[in-house]
Amino acid sequence: MFYIVLGVLALYVLYRVLGQWVLPAVTRRRMERYKKDFFSRNPHIDADRYEERQREAEEKSPIIDRRRRLR
Known about the structure:
Distance between the termini: 29 Å
Number of helices: 3
Structural class: mainly alpha
Helix content: over 70%
Mean pLDDT: 90
């Protein structure tokens, strides 16, 4: 019984670590790679202007939308 509880606890810790740190980092890296590829394939779209519009939209959004979600 002890080993089952220990195994479940280890799986839960692994799940939390993957969900909290590993997967978001991988997703961010993939998104940056995709954006770089997108802007290189579409030179008529200005990457700096796009980033500026994103920042402006984020500043205009309500504060509750900008908070970091804690789970």
